[in-house]
Specification:
Layout lengths: L8 E4 L6 H12 L2 E4 H8 L2 E5 L4 E4 L1 H14 L2 E4 L13 E6 L2 H10 L4 H12 L2 H9 L5 E5 L3 H22 L1
Parallel strand pairs: 1-5, 1-6, 2-5, 6-7
Antiparallel strand pairs: 3-4
């Protein structure tokens, strides 16, 4: 039996917007494979040094791409990461940029222990739509979609929208 071709989905947005919550739930409901790039980098030590200012490791983007290349070719992947401009355009059939209101995002990041410059820069990143613009420059405009991600109702609505999109994609491509 030939395996059905399945889409690759990118979930991106500022840290704290709900990518991981949405990605894990989507994977559970669809059987697609969920990949958190931060976790993958940690497990496989895909780093290129340490950023003292932000107190975090520096992702080795080339090694991440090498690590994921074969999996992405198989299809059926949900990739979660706060950046998107280093992934090959050919990998994704659709890109969802999650967006969160600043007051909500501030509280989420603060509860994660973000403070000072790291907290301010992430809030500014959201204010200036940095990730959305990065996605629009990196992928075909028609596959990039913004989704509000402020509360459980948004999560459920986004889930339904993406599930419908997957269902339609499967019909159109199999």
């Amino acid at each position: 039996m030939k395996m059905l071709k399945r889409p690759n989905i990118l979930l991106t947005g500022t840290p704290g917007v709900g990518k991981t919550t949405l990605g894990k739930e989507l994977a559970q409901r669809t059987g697609l494979t969920y990949i958190n790039v931060g976790d993958l980098a940690q497990e496989s030590e895909l780093y290129d040094g340490f950023d003292e200012e932000y107190q975090c490791p520096i992702l080795d983007e080339d090694r991440v791409v090498d690590e994921l290349e074969d999996k992405m070719g198989e299809g059926g992947m949900i990739v979660d990461y706060h950046g998107c401009d280093f992934f090959p355009e050919r990998w994704f059939h659709i890109v969802f940029v999650l967006r969160t209101e600043n007051s909500v995002l501030y509280n989420r990041l603060e509860s994660r222990g973000y403070k000072g410059k790291k907290l301010q820069d992430n809030i500014q990143c959201e204010i200036f739509q940095t990730i959305y613009e990065e996605a629009m420059e990196s992928y075909k405009e028609e596959i990039v979609h913004q989704l509000p991600s402020n509360n459980p109702e948004d999560l459920e609505r986004n889930m339904e929208q993406i599930l419908q999109w997957i269902e339609q994609w499967m019909k159109d491509n199999n």
